[in-house]
Structures are given as structure tokens and as C-alpha cells.
Amino acid sequence: MHNSNNSALSKDTIFGASNHTDTNSIYSSASVLEQFSVAKAKEALISKLITVKEPALITETPKFHEAKSEPVELSTSTKETFTRISERAKAKSLDEQIEEARVHFKQTFAKEQTRRARKYNIPFDASIVDYHQLSRKIDQYEFLLDEAKRWDISWDIKVYDPVALEQELEEARSRYWGETRAMRSDYYSSRRVAV
Question: Any idea of the CA torsion for 42, 47, 53, 55, to the nearest 10 degrees?
Fold first, then answer.
């Protein structure tokens, strides 16, 4: 019969038990023996075969495939061709931007002049109007209205009649200069009597 205490692969040797009887009495169930066996195997591996290291934090994403780009040497004529194409594209783009800005300005200017003309009831035909000429007409009328305010002339801005407004202004200026001459004459007359 085989003596388990002398065997190289006995339970005592594997589990590190000093007494065969003690080991059998402590570990009677099969699941406890399995757990103990796994724990001892881990200890042996950790202490003798591998060193314990904490897993390092991954700071970079692993690259499985990286496309290799090789520099392409272009001939001088090819480079010049690409340069000309890009300059044409930029010039066209700039010309298009200028044209868009011009159209936008024209539309905005037309809307603004239309609004101003309607404010003063200035007649115009939108299908044939020159908006720059209309703008000058509106500016002249606004100038006359400002003059009328300075001369204390009450004028309804909805009545567009620049000729009549100009006549009102001329009459106000004439009255002012007539009154000024009369006051000066009275002043000088009073000075002669006093002397």
C-alpha cells in the first residue's frame, strides 16, 4: 500500500499541511477543498512565477492600422497649374461676393428710398425710378423742411410741394429782413434825436 506522507505529490505537499489528519478534518467538503486549492495555486503563482503589478492606465488609443502617406513630388508646371486654378477660384469667389454685396446694397438702398419717399408722399413709379435721383429729391425736400423749422414755418410733411414750401421760405426771409431793416432804421432815428 502506498504511503501518502512520503509521496512527492501528496496533499500535504500541495496544500502545505503538516499533518494529514488535520487537513482532512478541516477540509471535509469538496467545494471547500476546491476553493482552498485555487487560493493556494494563486499564491504560488503570485509569489514564485509572476510579480504583481497594478494595471497601468491607458493614455493613448491603440492604433491598429495607420495609413502611411508618402510625400508626392509634383513637377514645377503642375504646381504652377494648381496655383493658377486656386487664384482663379479665389478671384471668382471674390467677384461673386462683390456682386452679391452690390445687389444687396441696391435692394436695401431701394427699400430705404421707397420708405423715405412714402413718408413725404413723394410720387414715383417703382418700375422706372432712378433711386439715386429719388434720393437727391428726398434730400432736397428734407433740407427745405429743416429750413422751415428754423424759420418757424408750420408745414405738413405729407403735402409734397417743394415749390410752395420754397415760396413760404422766401416770404419768411423777406419778412425777417424787412423787420430787421425797420428796426435798424428806428434805432438810428432814435440815436439822431438823442444826440
Answer: -10
